[in-house]
Amino acid sequence: MRxxxxxxxxxxxxxxxxxxxxxxxxxxSLTVNKGECLGIVGESGSGKSTLARCLLALEKIDEGExxxxxxxxxxxxKKSLHPVRSEIQAVFQNPSxxxxxxxxxxxxxxxxxxxxxxxxxxxxxxxxxxxxxxAERLFEMVGLPSKYLSYYPHELSGGQKQRVIIARAIxxxxxxxxxxxxxxxxxxxxxxxxxNLLKDLQEDLGISYLFxxxxxxxxxxxxxxxxxxxxxxxxxxxxxxxxxxxxxxPYTKDLLHVFEA
Amino acid sequence: MIxxxxxxxxxxxxxxxxxxxxxxxxxxxPFDPTQVKMEERLKPISMEHLLGTDHLGRDVFSRILTGAxxxxxxxxxxxxxxxxxxxxxxxxxxxxxxxxxRIFMRIVDAFMTFPDYIVAIILSGFLGPGMFNLVLAIVMxxxxxxxxxxxxxxxxxxxxxxxxxxxxxxxxxxxILRRHMIPHxxxxxxVLATLDIGKIILMIASLSYIGLGAQPPAPEWGAMLNEAKxxxxxxxxxxxxxxxxxxxxxxxxxxxxDYLRDHFDVKNQKG
Lengths: 261, 271
Fold this sequence. Notes:
By secondary structure, chain A is α/β, with parallel strands linked by helices. Chain A has helices spanning 48-55, 78-85, 105-109, 111-115, 131-141, 158-171, 188-205, 216-222, 250-260; strands spanning 7-17, 23-33, 37-41, 63-68, 71-72, 88-91, 176-180, 208-213, 225-230, 233-239. Chain A is globular, with a radius of gyration of 18 Å. By secondary structure, chain B is mostly helical. Chain B has a domain at 71-219: MetI-like fold (Orthogonal Bundle). The chains are: A alpha/beta, B mainly alpha.
C-alpha cells in the first residue's frame, strides 16, 4: 500500500560499506512523501544512523542514488549541494553534543538562518531582518521562554536543549527533517512532550519527517509508514495500521513481541 | 571567592603597571641606560640612582626599565609568532585529518624530539648570537606546543554532533573553523600562552646570561645578571635586582595564566 503524494525524498539502492568491509547499509530503497512521517525501526547496529548520515551528505555513499526534491545529493559538487542543504535538517540523539558549549543559545539557534541568508521561511518572512525577533518567534513555536536565548547550553536541561535543536531544525522551513533517535537520551515524560511537539509542528508546517528509532512505540506514535531494518537491509515495510497484521516478517514480529512485553 | 577576586585585582593591577613600564620605559628612565660614567661605578642605592649603578657607572634603574622592553617585548614577539605559526598549523592538521595530518604531525614530532634549550643553543650557535636569532631559535621550539594543542582540541570537537549540524547547515570549513573551533582553541591556547610566557622570559634571560641573546651594551635582564656576577661580593644588588625582576614578571604571568584558565571555562559564567 502506498500513500499518494509528492515525493520529497527518494532513495534508490543505497549501499554504504565501511573501510573494514562491514556493510552498514545494503541496497536500501525508500521514499518519503510530502507531509509524511516515515519511521525506521531497528536494533542497534542495524545501519539506521549510517543511513541518516548518508542522507545528510555527511558520509560518502558507495552505490545508489539519493534524490531530495528530485535533486541528486551526490552528483552534486559542493556548490550545487548548497540549495539542496536548505531542504534538509536533522535532530540527533544527544542534545548536549548538538550545541556548541561555547556559544550562547541564540547563536546556535540562528546558525542556519545566519549562514543561509537567502532562505525566507514563510513564518518568519515579516521579521527576516530582525535576528532577536526571529529567535523569539522560533522559541515560542517550540514552547521555550525567550530568556533562555542568552543562556549557555549547560544551563538548560536535556529536554530544553532538544527543543532548541528542534527550533533550529524548523527555522529554515526544510522539506525534510531527519530525526535520529530524538528522544533516546531523555526521560519518559519529556519524551512524550517532545514527540507531541514534533507532531504538532509537522501538522502546522507540513514538513516531512524521517523518524529513526529503536523504540517501536515512539515510531508507531509518530509515523504513517514504518520500515524495519536489520543488518543494513530493509526486511519489512508496512503502513502503521498493518503493523500488527499476521503477514508481517518474523523479525518484525520479534520486535513487536519485545515491545508488547 | 573573596580571595579569588582579590587575586584577580592584584593580577590586573600588576599587569597594568607592567604594561605602563614597558610602553613608557624610555620616558621614565632618568638616565641613558648605556651611558658609561667610570667615576660613578658601583654606587649603592641612593636618591639620585634609585637602584644604584653598575660596574661601568650606568644607572641600574634605567637599565632595568629599558631591559624590560627587550626581555618582555621579545617574549611577546616570540609568543605571537609561535601562535601565528602553531595554531593554524594545528587547526588545519586536526580538521583536515588523513594524510595531511600524518605528515604535519611527523614534522611536529621531529621538532619535539630535541630539548628546548639544546635546540636554542645550537641554533644560536649556528646563526650567531644576537636578539633576532634568539627569537628565531625559541620560536622554533615553542610553536610545536601550540600546534599540538590546537590539533588535539580540534580532534575532540570534530567528533561532536554540532559540527555535523554545521555541515548540514551548509557552513564552509573555514566558517566552521572560525565559529566553532577557534573559541574552543582560544581558551586553551591563551592559558598555555600565559604559562609559557614565564618560561620564555626565563629562556631569553638564561640564554642571554650565557651570552647568546642581547649583546652588550644593550640592557637585558639576563645579560645584566651575567655582567654583575663578577661583582657579587661588592655589589650583590646588581644581581638581585634583575633576578627579582625576572622572578616577579614570571610570577605575574603564571598568576594570569591561572586566572585565564578559570575565566575561559564558560561553566563559571552566568548567562
